[in-house]
Amino acid sequence: MAYQSLGVVYGDLSISPLYVVRSTFAEDIKHTESNEEVYGVLSLVFWSITLVPLLKYVLVVLKADDNGEGGTFALYSLLCRHATLSSLPNCQLADHHLSEYNNRSRRPPPHTTFASSLKAAFERHRLLQSLLLLLALIGTCMVIGDGILTPAISVFSAVSGLELSMSKEKHAYVEVPVACIILIALFALQHYGTHRVGFLFAPVIITWLFCISAIGIYNIFHWNPHIYKALSPYYAFQLIRKTQKGGWMALGGVLLCITGSEAMFADLGHFTQLSIKIAFTSVVYPSLILAYMGQAAYLSKHHNIEQDYHFGFYVSVPDKLRWPVLVIAILAAVVGSQAIITGTFSIIKQCSALSCFPRVKVIHTSSKIHGQIYIPEINWLLMLLCLAVTICFRDTKRLGNASGLAVITVMLVTTCLMSLVIVLCWHQNVLLALGFVLVFGTIEALFFSASLIKFLQGAWVPIALALVFLTLMYVWHYGTLKKYEYDVQNKVSVNWLLGLGPSLGIVRVRGVGLIHTELVSGIPVIFSHFVTNLPAFHQVLVFLCIKHVPVPHVKPEERFLVGRVGPKEFRIYRCIVRYGYRDVHQDDIEFERNLLGSITEFIRTESTGLNSSNEEPGKDDRMAVVGTCSTHSMLMSEDNAENIDMPGTSELKEIKTPQVIQQKKRVRFLVPESPKIDTGAMEELKEVMEAREGGVAYIIGQTHMRAKPGSSMLKKIVINIVYEFLRRNSRAPSFVTSVPHASSLEVGMMYKV
TM segments (predicted)? Predict the structure, then answer.
């Protein structure tokens, strides 16, 4: 796993030698005969890589995983669970009993600690909760910005090696087109997934690391064997003291040596902590240090700065190796860009699952490799923006300024969230959290200030992108909350349902009706609207709520919550299907099978007294946890069409052969014969299965939102224009998109919030 992580996690971090030195010496500091600037930059680079990736991420941050998952939203998810800060509106007490919700770090803190006071403050003040969500969204927006800027600067810097083999005039017309062609090819191939070529990623990065470390060793011994002395922090302080403002601004270039550090944490879900630590400490870290030492050794003996490319990476490469190294560098840049693009897809999927991003189409490109996804809309948007910044900037300096600000902002967000995790989740002394913020926050604040001062030299790009994405994400989240509040305020009471009687005052026809709702209790207003306007409904009704919980994964045996709505003779059920923010949704056939299986299992266990949901009639808040069909005795089975006459066992009785055939498969519905199941439950099971054979219809609400009369102008703009625009142009929920068109029925309603 350590070997594989080299290709997935460390692509971005490994290619940083291509542009760090050039960006650092762009304008802010000069290269003098004393070599103090070169030694100072090497010292800054060495200690930056040592303090941030090695000490902060490897030793501390990697331990803050959310059941094996990492990244900005993993930290936010941890905090939501430990302090009841979830931004999801339909949370339930039952969610707290999920096995991944109560992970190893969740234990009640002593009531006298600072953690208790901080937890109470967050739970009491909505403003603090909003600020925490805003912080997580800022980090997410900067990750998206990094997904635009990293491919641009990586590929552009790799292609810049062509400048040594042609004149400056020709190079100006070759570099940008070649970089754009590579970027277009990179994004165009995303829909194929990386599982077919992923096995090449690790060899490419290993070859690249071997090249830069070998060239570094050659330059050290050939040009300046004593360059190791420059690793002392003395030279870093000397550089700042001598150059003052220039040295401080040069930190914006030094910062680029730690780009990709966040990937060590964000990609934690694909690997283990140990594998990521082994790969970094044994391969990546020494290779990068040797590469930077080699560049510094070469520059310490070459002071001719007449050429623009004097500080470029390829100048220090021996002439005979430049073309092979150029090819390997381009391949490594593509691999590094692929990693950040995949990471961008992943974090957008997480945001969408937690109602913080408009719904998008998520395609799983591999059925075997976890997390390999493709989002078409985001892919083409990233490509257009990436090409735009490449064509507009045309140089490493401004691309580096933009990329650096995006990277360091994500790191600052991680530092802030980590300090809260240390107190609220790990229940450590507050001094430890303050020490963490003081050490790493100070370092990152210096880098941030050095990047921000270059606002007009490119740093404005990630800020502009973040503002746009942040606005869209916050408006979507706000609109989603308002829609849910309207549903809650206008839901119909169970007493209204009881007053209709078992037939609901209408004709009950054969079949199963699945009414999609966001509510976890009560009867949605869409149902009363439907019953009022239509004279018939299905004999079995299921109020279906598909929701996400703030954990990465929900185990199959804990996925379904099933209960009754009204008395047994009503044949109305509520089913809540819970997914984690990293879970893969099932297709419609498998989903239907598991859904009906969970209901039949609920009926069976209820009749045998194995769950506590059989309360008084009309009780609507008792739910039972029921697993998928794979976790309990199968009540439905699939046989090949040519083998449907197989004899059943003595414990199973076939009710009826359905007429539904899917891919030469025929579904048989089986009811277990058991003396523990009473006659009423057997009849109910038969009725549910016969209804399933009659077909399943999906009733889906299509809501249009408008701000209430008298609302502020800002609210009208947010709801009537921005949110409605996003709703109309976003995808339907993943559950809806997999529903056969002939089986769905949409009911439109106007919400005034």
Answer: 38-59, 131-159, 171-189, 201-221, 247-266, 278-298, 323-348, 369-391, 403-424, 431-453, 459-476
